[in-house]
């Protein structure tokens, strides 16, 4: 094995070995999606003590000057493991920690980066959304994860985006954009202009069922605009990294459009919300992971939104 081959083999071990120990720290496994873009694939599950809350896709982008982290995971421990993964790739400082939205699996690792003194970046609506659910999120985290939740906390944004904004990490411009209420009311995407890599947060679920905590109609509208971006690489909030595009977005759009159509039809027939929940979309069961956990909630959310539609 020549020197170059040996180096590539070592790099492979660093980037793809899950839960390895380096300098006394657990290192989160990451995959190089595109030059400078590294992502970790979360478990396709709800947060449990077994998976330690590691259920969302998180990662980072390396510039010539510094590093931007995109979501930090479901616990302080996961955030620390992500920080160790960054250190295995580059000694550059972390200057930005970007949260794509408020949900616990994306934000509770933020505290691992406080000592780096980055700017914590999110939607202009993120802080209020986090504050309104903070107590519930902390109770649920401690109940579901026990000691694995130790030290986890919500770190509010110190820099906010309303519409679009850019971050310069040195030779690499990141375009951040907020969206119409969809998965939540504080969704934000990150686009690396240099490589055409789009970090969608939970505006894109792949294989895992989309979860509505905002607006089904807003989400469909956002999808139409996201499709026009035509990225070269994609990091979804959940599911396989860099999935086929735009097929993955089409599958999500079809589920949401069918849901809206069927709920509207049920409302027009005079069905109650319970009747709608018990009958709509059951043929989707084998198409999505976590269907039994979230589909009925989606029907409920869509019914509540569309019931008063004019």
From TrEMBL:
CDD domains to which the protein is assigned, alphabetical: metallo-hydrolase-like_MBL-fold
Domain of life from the UniProt record: Bacteria
GO BP annotations listed: antibiotic catabolic process
Domain spans labelled Metallo-beta-lactamase: 55-238
InterPro entries: Metallo-B-lactamas, NDM-1-like, RibonucZ/Hydroxyglut_hydro, SoxH-rel_PQQ_2
Family annotation (Gene3D superfamilies): Ribonuclease Z/Hydroxyacylglutathione hydrolase-like
Pfam families recorded: Lactamase_B (PF00753)
UniProt family annotation: Belongs to the metallo-beta-lactamase superfamily. Class-B beta-lactamase family.
Family annotation (PANTHER family): ACYL-COENZYME A THIOESTERASE MBLAC2 (PTHR42951:SF4), METALLO-BETA-LACTAMASE DOMAIN-CONTAINING (PTHR42951)
Name under which the protein is recorded: Beta-lactamase domain-containing protein
Organism from which the protein derives: Caballeronia glebae
Classification of source organism: Bacteria, Pseudomonadati, Pseudomonadota, Betaproteobacteria, Burkholderiales
